[in-house]
Structures are given as structure tokens and as C-alpha cells.
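Forwarding the complex inputs:
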Amino acid sequence: MKLPVSTEWVLHCASTLAQLEPGTTASAAQLVEYYDLPAASLAKQLQALVKAGVLSATPGPRGGFRLARPATEITLLQMVEAVDGVSDPYQCREIRQQGRGALPADECRSVCILAEKMAEAYNAWRRSLAGVTLADILATLPPSAPARTRSRLTVAARSATE
Amino acid sequence: MKLPVSTEWVLHCASTLAQLEPGTTASAAQLVEYYDLPAASLAKQLQALVKAGVLSATPGPRGGFRLARPATEITLLQMVEAVDGVSDPYQCREIRQQGRGALPADECRSVCILAEKMAEAYNAWRRSLAGVTLADILATLPPSAPARTRSRLTVAARSATE
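Prediction (whole assembly, two chains):
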């Protein structure tokens, strides 16, 4: 059971964008340099965050990405699911209905109790991630973090356009 | 994020073995026929359950598998982890320490807050599965289930040795 490696990228990039001054953006190139990530793969994941309503993208040479909503309204779950989709890791293929032990279809109208319990665990995981916002993450950073982040992003920007 | 298809197999096979008369066993061949599963793959998963202390295996032509512990002491988590291992689906590769934004190592002595929150969600998933035993599953089955299960397994046994 593995989430894509890019899950770490999107969580960190969104946390970085959450530290920008209001009204400013960061480009994909800046984020690529900031975290030393593969450009094409990151661009794809940033688009997934846009599609999920987590980020908004401004086109053009001065454009870039910013949060589409306040950091208090963006959860870890929204970002993880933007990358990995929404799907219980447990796959029920109804083996209870096959082989010599097969149960008749009319005894299988409700979800198998095993699939139900696995889904409860998945829901516990989702609830945990839905309970953490980007604002919660930012609140744990040292007070000097946003200024440092913005300064390092600016260096990356300058270098990327040189 | 996916669990192996065999997760469903082991949960069902253990639930089936939990319905045997005390002191009796079922062979891998019986379980293969009971659920119409691929023999070699199932055999491998049954061995994983033995290794995890969920099942015990009796060798020989009259041998087979039975629960290694009472059904009240076998959890869904133990079976899932016997198949898939113990590993947070979120992979933290410490991208906070790379690129232009790299934090100095001495600021990264504790786990990244994002990895910490992802681990909390994983632990919520594990706790949920650790809270469900095979006995809980059996308690939800209709009273007629164990007799039916044993009878279908016996048919499979007879056929498998013919």
C-alpha cells in the first residue's frame, strides 16, 4: 500500500505557496528549483491541484500558482486525493460468491462484512487527513519561516529567468 | 494506494478456518476449491499467515491449516500486515532538505510535520483494523453459516483427493 512519491511534493509545494504574500504567485520553475524536483512531473501534479480546486494558476510570464482558497479551507485529504484519487485500498472482488463455497446472490445484497470493516479503516484514515488544514501546518512552523521561504523562492525565480 | 488482491483471500480463508470444529483443519486444496483461487498464490499467502502466527500448519496427507490462536485474538490488522507488511503508505524522502529551499540538517532533527500528520492518519487506519477480531466477524454471520461452511469444505476435500 503506497501513495505516489509526488504526494510529498504537493504537500510541501502547497505549504510553500501558503507562505506567499497575498496576491503573489510562484511559478512551477521556482517550485522545481526550491525543492529540486523533476519539472515535468511536478507540473503535472500542480495541474492536478488546480483541477482539485486547491491551487489557481495565472497564465503568462508573470503568472504562477497560488492557493485557490484560504489555508484554513485546504486539507491534507484534498491534496492527497488530488494526486492519488479516492479509492479504498482494499479491493473486494466478491470471492464469497465464487467456488464451491459460493453464497447465493440473494445473500450478498449487502456489502461483505470484511469489506465493510476495511472501509471503516479507510474512512478513519480519510477523517484523520480531513482534520488537518494547511493553516494547521503553517501554525507549527517557526515565525521566521515565511520570510525565509519567500526569499529563497525569489532567488530561485531570478535564477530561473536568467 | 492499493492493498494486494490476496488481502481479500486471506481475510476470507481465515474466517472460514475460524468456523471449523475444534481440532480439525482444512487443506490449501480445500480452500482453493472453496473460493476458486489460484493454488500457488494462495499457498504462499497461507504460509505468510503461518509466519505471522495467525494460522498453524499441520504437515502430511491428513494435515492442513487451522487458527493458531482463538478467533478473539486474531485481528484484521494482523492478517492485512501478514500480506502487505507494515509501512506507512506515505513516503517522506526529506525533500525539505534539498534544492534552493533546503533547510539545514539541524532544523530537521524531528520528523517533518507533514510526515507526522500522514503517520497519524496511517495509525488511525491501523487502530481501526486492530479493533476488529475474527470473532467479531463470525458474530455477524447467520447461525447456519458454520455448518454450511464445513459441509462445503468437506465436499471440496473429497473432490480434491479423488
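The beta strands of chain A are 55-58, 64-67.
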